[in-house]
Amino acid sequence: MKTVAIFGATGSIGTSALDVIARHPDRFRSSVLSANRNVEALADLCARHQPDMAIIADPTLEGALASALKARGLRTQAAAGERALEQAAAGPHCEIVLAAIVGAAGLRSTLAAARAGKRLLLANKEAAVMAGPLLRAALAEGGGELIPVDSEHNALFQCLPDSHEDLRGRGGVRKLWLTASGGPFRGCTREQLANVTPDQACAHPNWRMGRKISVDSATLMNKGLEVIEAQVLFGVDADAIEVVVHPQSMMHSLVEYIDGSFLAQLGQPDMRTAIAHALAWPERIEAGVARLDPRMLALDFESPDEETFRCLALAHQAMHAGGDAPALLNAANEIAVAAFLDGALPFLGIAQVIEAVLNELPPQSVVNLETLLARDLTARSAAQRIIRKQVVGC
Ligand code: NAD
Ligand code: MG
Questions:
Q1: Is the CB of residue 231 below 6 angstroms from any atom belonging to ligand 1?
Q2: Nearest one of 85, 40, 84 to 65, comparing CA atoms
Q3: Centre of ligand 1 from the C-alpha of residue 127, in Å
Q4: Which residues are within 5 Å of ligand 2 (an ion), measured at CB?
Q5: How far apart are CA 148 and CA 281, in angstroms?
Q6: Is 20 in the pocket of ligand 1 (CB under 6 A)?
Q7: For the segment 169-214, what is each residue's pLDDT rounded down to a tens digit?
C-alpha cells in the first residue's frame, strides 16, 4: 500500500488523481490532501477519502478547517500554510507526492518532496519552469524519482530510453516533439482576438482544466512553459525541442531518434492516463479512461503561429536567454493571466506585459531559492505596474 499526498486536491488534476486512487484501494491511499482556501470542499474530500492530514494553504483558515473536519466526525488532522505543505511533502505521511498546485505557490512543496527523495508526480509545471536548476539539484540530493504528469512530458517519458534525465547527445534522441492542441483560438487573427472574454479563453476544445492553465492554452504560453519544462526534465538542448499543433489531442508527444524512428504515445485527452501511469510506473493500472478506437483516429499536424500567439515566442526567448529569465516569464504571465481573468487586461495584453517585463529585467543566474523568489516578486511588481499603465493608457 502506497500513501499519496495530493497537493491541489480540489483542482482539476487533484480530482482526477483522487478518482484513479479510489479505483485501487488495495494499492494506494490518499494520505494528505490540500487546497488553497475552499475549506468546505477540502473537508468533503476528507470525508470521502479519509486522509491522515488536510492542509489549507491560507493560514487564517486553519481553525475553520479543524471545525469542518470535526463537524464531519473525522479524525483527519488539520494544518495550514505553506510551511505545513513543505513539512508534509518531506514527512512520514506520504511516499508519493502529486504536485498539482497551480503556479509558483507550488514551488516550495515541490522542492521539499524532491529533496526528501519522494516519488514526485509533477503536474505543477510552473515549479520546473521557475526553478529548473534548483529542482534538478533537489532531485539529485533526495535520490527520488520524478515522473511527469503533464500529458506531453508523460508521453515523452514513456517513449524515451530508461535513462532520460540527461539526454544531451545520448540515447540516440534527435528531437522531442511536443504536441499542442492550438487551444480555443487556433486559426484566429489578432483582430479576432482583441476582444475575447475569459469564458471564451477557458472553453478549451479537448481538455477540462483549471482557469489559469486554460488561459495559458489559449495564448500558447502553456506550450511555451512546456518547452522549458521539457528542457529541465530531460536535459536536452533548446534546439532539440519542437512544437507541433495537433488539434485532436490524441497523440500526446513524440520522440524522434537518429535512426529515423519516431515513438509516440497516444490516448484519449484524459489526464487520468498520465496520472495512473505516474502512480504505478513501471507497472500499468486501470485508469477509468474511455478506450480509444484506432480506426477512429484522424491525426492532423501543423506549425504553431508564433506571430499571433506571441507568448510561445516569448517563452522560447526566455529559454534561450537562460538564467532566471524563465522565472521572470512565469511571474509576469501569472500576473497578466490573473488580470485578464479579472477583466482588467485584454487577451492580447498578456503577451505585451510579459514582453515588457522581460525587456525591463535582464536575466541573472539562479543562485538559490531566496534570490529567485526575490526576482519573482520584482517581476510581479513590474507586471502590475505595466498593467496599471496600460489600463490607464487605454
Ligand atoms: P486548478 O485551478 O483546477 O487547481 C489548482 C489547485 O491548487 C486547487 O486545489 C487549489 O485549491 C490549489 N491552489 C491554488 N492556489 C494555491 C495557493 N496559492 N496555495 C496552495 N494551493 C493553491 O488547476 P489544475 O488545472 O488542476 O492545474 C494544476 C497544475 O497542474 C497546474 O500547474 C497546471 O499547469 C498543471 N496541469 C494541469 C493539467 C490539467 O489538465 N488540468 C494538465 C497538465 C498540467
Ligand atoms: Mg500539457
A1: no
A2: 40
A3: 12
A4: 150-152
A5: 11
A6: no
A7: 678 999 999 999 999 999 999 999 999 999 999 998 888 899 999 9
